[in-house]
Structure formats: C-alpha cells, structure tokens
Amino acid sequence: MTDTLFCWCRAGFEPELAAELTERAALAGHPGYARAERGNGYVEFKVEDAAALSRALPFDRLVFARQKLVRLADLHSLDPTDRITPILAALETLRGQGDIAEGQERFGDLWMEHPDSDTGKPLAGLARSFGNALRPALRKAGWLTPKDDPRRPRLHVVFLGGHHVVLATSNPRDSAPWPLGIPRLRMHPDAPSRSALKLEEALLTLLDDKERELLLRDNMQAADLGASPGGWSWVLVRHGMLVTAVDNGPMREQLLESGRVEHVRADGFQWQPRRRVDWMVCDMVEQPRRVADRMATWFREDWCKYAVFNLKLPMKKRWEETRICLEAFELQTHRPMVIRARQLFHDREEITVFAMPQR
C-alpha cells in the first residue's frame, strides 16, 4: 500500500503546504505527518493509505499545492549508467504487491519532472534526456500506452538528484494538467504589466473548460479594483469585456484608447457600481482580511456575479491566515459560495481566489 502523498509547491512555501496537508488530512480522517525542507519545492506527506487520502483531498481544494501525486517508489543510489533497469524492476515489484491494480498496468503518459527550486532546476536537462530513453523502454515493457491516453493515470518520474528518483502517479481528472503544475505562459508585448500573467493563469487554473466558455463572453461588464497600470483590465478586454478600471493611479493610454475601458479615479475600497456587473477583479495591496471583507461585501450586496481577487499574505502563519480569510469571506457573503484558491506560479507572497455563488 502506498504511504506517501507527494506535492509540488513554490519554493519557500513548504511549511505552508505541510500545515495545510496536516490539517486537511486530519479533518478527512487520514491523519499523518509532513516531511518538508524549506526551499526544496515539494512536501512529502506520510499517511497509512496515500491513495485514499488523495481521493479525500480533491486537488482543486488545495491552496499551496501546485500538483498532487501519490508516490509509488523512492529509488536511491541509482547507477548513472543504468537507471532504467531499477525503475522497471520497481514497477514490477509494485505490481506484485498490489500497489498497481490489475487492469491499470499501463500508464497513459510519462512526465519527467524535477523540483522548481535552485537545487532542482539544474536537473532539468538530465530529466529531459533520460525521458527520451525511458519512454520507449516503458512502452516495450508494456507500462505505457502506445499513444498518450488522458483517461489513464500518468506516471511521474521525479529527479531529486542524479542518483535519486521518485516514481509517482496522478489522476488526470484530479491534478494539474501541466508538469510541475506550472502553465507555460508568455508575457504579451502589449500587456501593461506582468500582473496580467496572474489573471491569465487564474482563469486557466481556477476555472474549467466549460466555465471559461460560459463565464468569459463578449461584452460582459467587469470592474477592476486597483487597476493601475491596467494588467488585469487588459486581460478582461482580451476576453471581450467592457471594463470599469478603478484606481487613483494612471492607466496605460493604449488600453484606454481601445474604447472598452472606462477609467474611474477612485478608491477601490470605497467605490461601488451603479448596477451589477458580471465580473469583479481585484489585485490591491492591502491587509488580506480587509480585502476579504470588501470582497464579501460585493457578493452580499449582489454587485457582481463572479470574482477573482488576490490576498497578500503575511510573513508568518500564512496557512492560518489563508484559512481565516477564506472562512470569513464565505461567512460574510451570507450565501453558499463556490470558492477556489491557489498560490499560482505567477503569484509571490499571495494567493488568488475565484468565487461565485452556488447555483
């Protein structure tokens, strides 16, 4: 029985993810303990049945995890001249122990990974080149489908060092759809600021395909609180929306010339719309509890249908502050809410939240 949940996170936020997993696992009836080292970019959570815990903790409910894997094997002291043989042997052992169920002997895809950390990034080239050799060997041995199959579990081969490899698996329907949980987005030359990448990633990560089709439509009305210089307004305009940009600071002239952005010089914490808008977004630098309180007001007063907002976290007890802010936000909206929060790749000392009333 597999006994370890393996999760990627932002380097430096291992204690936050460890605290989150420890609390959520206990509440789900699967107590365990976390092993984490600040700066290494991942957390290992030891538990009696990691597969059962993974099912009890849906990926979209986790805040500080970029990716959620069930560890299958931890291989140390590998011979650099032949890493493939011990990997194939480990898989056969897992099958014999019943950790790979009958009928699931084939994985739908192989992902080669390494920590997104200062010590892990130099392993990228090794992981990539080794994957080119491992993939055909896995297919020949019957462990990989002839073509990628998104319906089957993925096999993750994680390099933690030249002699240290972790084998893990993920459910494509309950995990991030990108290696390391990192979407590869490029800064558009017309974007007013790099903050545009945060909202682009939020819409890609916190909404599913059907929601993006239904909730991001031409000529929707949107409000951007704390909009200057216009990064988030620019993203909304790219989705065809008409935006009221609220900020006492300046906006990018090219954005205003589009004719789809009205700049209102006002305090985002005081301004309110004359009529309900479809979207409200907010990236104001302020105490997270104050932001959460104002965001709750928008839903309580029915000023918007959907929202994406950032909560800037303190330096200490960041999981505790996250939980307090999200619980207070939901309580103060006075209605059942859909709330998804994640520390995105393009976030730093913050988390991003998507919210809408339950239907």
UniProtKB/TrEMBL annotation:
The answer on whether this UniProt entry bears the keyword Protein biosynthesis reads no
Question: What residues does the Ribosomal RNA methyltransferase FtsJ domain cover?
Answer: 193-286
Q: Which GO terms describe its cellular component?
A: cytoplasm
Give yes or no: UniProt keyword Oxidoreductase: no
Q: Which Pfam families match?
A: FtsJ, RlmM_FDX, RLMM_N
User: For the RlmM ferredoxin-like domain, which residue ranges apply?
Assistant: 4-69
E.C. code:
2.1.1.186
Q: Where is it mainly found? A: cytoplasm
Subunit info here reads:
Monomer.
The protein in question is named Ribosomal RNA large subunit methyltransferase M
Q: Which organism is it from?
A: Lysobacter concretionis Ko07 = DSM 16239
Gene behind the chain: rlmM
